[in-house]
Amino acid sequence: MSKQEKVYSLNVILTVFVCLLAFSDLGYTAEIRIPEDYTTITEALVMANDGDTIRVAAKIYSEPNEIFPQVFLTILMTNHI
Fold it and tell me: Domain segments of the chain: what residues?
């Protein structure tokens, strides 16, 4: 293998590595827990991103209804406290 071929191969490997690093967390989703992570459902909704799951501990939550931008979330009621 010539020196030029080695340099080209190294460039290809580095390019693939950089692309993998740049796009490695595209499918990342978070699990947000109330009240551990946020004390109110509203706070959790404000901080949530598409695909996140919000786990809500069993309790009565008295919060004003607010309209949020279209975000695709999963909200689960759980028995944890």
Answer: 3-78
Q: How many CB atoms lie within 10 A of CB 43?
A: 15
**What H or E segment, with its residue span, contains residue 78?**
strand 74-78
Taking Cα atoms as reference points, which of 43, 40, 71 lies closest to residue 57? 40
Partners of residue 52 on adjacent β-strands: none
Question: What is this structure's pTM?
Answer: 0.53
Segment 9-58, tens digit of pLDDT: 777 777 776 666 665 556 678 899 999 999 988 888 888 888 888 888 88
- In this structure, are residues 2 and 21 in contact, taking their beta carbons and an 8 Å threshold? no
Closest C-alpha to 61, from 32, 35, 31, 33: 35
User: What CA–CA distance (Å, rounded) separates 57 from 27?
Assistant: 26
